[in-house]
Design brief:
The complex is a heterodimer of chains A (about 220) and B (about 350). With about 220 residues, chain A is an all-alpha fold. Chain A is about 80% helix and about 0% strand. Chain B contains 9 helices and 21 strands. The chains are: A mainly alpha (about 220), B alpha+beta (about 350).
Chain lengths: ~220, ~350
């Protein structure tokens, strides 16, 4: 059994969750504060799409954006000298694209649960919008936000379809745990696949446990 | 100096159209639920934006639709006391009170401790709001408003979240604590007792419109409008026909009333407060209804006697509030003669 898929997977999931977490919070806050209900619905739909689309479709769309023959991919390659497709970065991009909706939706739900009167009170007390967000909204929404983060991490760790499309399945480079399991089974190495499955099971269980812990953790002041 | 409000806003159920002025006297908004009381306060605070109009506070324009001025809530210096207090549950009492203060840490501590002391909350500063009683939470909310020295203090149903027995005690406490506060005080309430007790002036709101403004005691004495009479707690109201300058017919009570002074011609209803009725020996006196007693409700110190005109069901009920000792003296008789004293009649339209 090679250890590299485990390392690559953890590295990818860790990098992805940082991006997803910040992006999810940012977009959730933006959508919650939107005035127009119609625009809100449309944007919410777009942001949730990756959750319902087959991951291969997301991978396809990412290929269109980052493919080296496409304008943006060409620009990255020729001007910045960066090649996204079939690189480790691509595994991160795929994981972010797929896990983003989970983070966004959890954060949005958590923000919307915060009593509007508290925000209004903050305003009449002279607090700036930024201060209200960090001092009131975030602490009160934290259990939901953390649960969303954990869930996104797990989803990023298990990402297969989009990763295969845009990052490929290159050993020691882009072969994450799910891809390694697929490859080993294809090659008839059930034993090795079994070990990888075990690793995924352990990590996933830990993640679900953490999520339950955070979402159920009762804060003494909230009761 | 003072607060001048003249705003209009389209709402889902009705349109808000409020205008009033206040200069240093406590002002109460009285109205049924959904009459736009809280919305008016929110517009003044800047949490909601009116469609058009003007709000001026101490010569500072807070909102003017024509001049396109709309200050943020943060810039208005208005204290808003929320119905459910809106204390931040994740902060301690001290943090709650000091959250918006802009000054050094040391100065902040000093000011917070001072106000805690003034509001009899010493030693509670490190607790979270949910560890305190309803009355204490109310004091924290009030302290949080007042530490910023707002130009206007707006109380949105300040006592509605409290138990009956706490209410009375806290009403007096709040009056005491507001003694040093010199800004404008606006209070939203649907309790006529609170309005009467707290506020010298009154704004009556009905379906989003200001239908009456004026001195509280005068409005209670002469409500003039049907809706005002209801909101100020007048229990007995009857449609009426003016028969002549000195005679009118109370249709719902089945009684013709003789009035010595001139009856205003435009009235549609008359009213009389339940405790202003007088029980008399017989129907010989003028303006007396012979009533059959339908029900008696016992209160702590008085009875609510529900009666209708003698043996006839087509007339509406009359409620007569009487002190227990007076009622107990009365001889057991089938018929109750209720006289309506002329000076207690409310002429309404």
């Amino acid at each position: 059994m090679e250890i590299s898929p485990i390392i690559i997977s953890l590295k990818t999931a860790a990098a992805a969750i940082v991006l997803t977490f910040m992006l999810g919070l940012f977009v959730a806050r933006f959508v919650v504060n939107m005035k127009s209900e119609k625009a809100k619905m449309v944007l919410d739909g777009i942001m949730t799409l990756p959750l319902v689309l087959p991951p291969t479709v997301m991978g396809f769309l990412l290929l269109i954006v980052f493919g080296v023959n496409r304008p943006f991919g060409k620009f990255l390659l020729e001007v910045l000298g960066v090649r996204i497709v079939f690189s480790w970065t691509a595994t991160v991009i795929a994981a972010v694209a797929i896990s983003f909706p989970l983070m966004y939706r959890s954060a949005r739900g958590a923000f919307e649960q915060v009593d509007k009167n508290l925000l209004m009170a903050g305003r009449t007390l002279g607090m700036s919008e930024g201060r209200i967000f960090w001092k009131i909204t975030m602490p009160l929404a934290l259990p939901g936000v953390v649960a969303g983060g954990v869930l996104s991490f797990a989803r990023g760790l298990g990402e297969f379809g989009a990763t295969a499309m845009i990052a490929g399945n290159i050993a020691n480079k882009t072969r994450t745990l799910p891809l390694a399991i697929y490859s080993e089974v294809s090659a008839g190495n059930m034993d090795i696949a079994f070990y990888y499955v075990l690793v995924i099971l352990v990590i996933s269980f830990l993640v679900v446990f953490l999520m339950n812990y955070f979402s159920q953790k009762e804060r003494k002041y909230l009761r | 100096m003072g607060l001048i409000v003249d705003i209009r806003k389209k709402l889902k159920s009705h349109n808000l159209d409020v205008s009033f002025e206040t200069h240093g006297e406590y002002l109460a908004f009285l109205g049924a639920s959904g009459s736009g009381k809280s919305m008016t306060l929110k517009c003044i605070a800047g949490i909601e934006t009116p469609d058009e109009g003007r709000i001026v506070l101490n010569d500072k324009v807070l909102f003017d639709s024509k001049l396109k001025i709309n200050l943020k809530p943060q810039e208005r210096n208005i204290g808003y006391f929320f119905q459910n207090y809106a204390l931040f549950p994740h902060m301690t009492v001290e943090e709650n009170i000091g959250i918006g203060l802009v000054c050094s840490k040391k100065e902040k501590m000093k000011r917070v401790q001072n106000i805690l002391k003034k509001f009899h909350l010493e030693g509670e500063g490190k607790k979270h709001p949910n560890q305190l009683s309803g009355g204490e939470q109310q004091r924290i909310a009030l302290a949080r408003c007042l530490i910023y020295k707002p130009d206007v203090l707006m109380l949105d149903e300040p006592f509605s979240a409290l138990d009956m027995h706490l209410k009375e005690k806290l009403q007096n406490e709040v009056l005491e604590m507001l003694k040093d506060y010199s800004g404008e005080v606006l209070m939203v309430t649907h309790s006529r007792d609170e309005a009467y007790k707290f506020c010298k002036n009154l704004v009556i709101l009905d379906q989003g419109k200001t239908v009456m403004t004026g001195n509280t005691k005068e409005i209670f004495k002469q409500p003039k409008l049907l809706i005002t009479a209801r909101l100020t707690g007048c229990k007995n109201i009857s449609k009426c026909d003016v028969l002549s300058q000195n005679r009118l017919r109370a249709i719902d009570w089945g009684l013709d009333l003789e009035i010595e002074k001139e009856i205003p011609l435009n009235i549609t209803h008359i009213g009389v407060r339940a405790h202003n009725l007088v029980s008399v020996a017989n129907a010989a006196k003028k303006n007396t209804i012979a009533c059959k007693i339908k029900k008696i409700y016992e209160d702590m110190f008085e009875y609510d006697v529900i009666a209708t005109k003698d043996h006839e069901d087509e007339y509406s009920e009359i409620i007569y509030k009487v002190k227990k000792q007076d009622w107990d003296l009365r001889r057991e008789e089938e018929t109750l003669y209720l006289q309506i004293p002329e000076e207690e009649i409310l002429f309404l339209n």
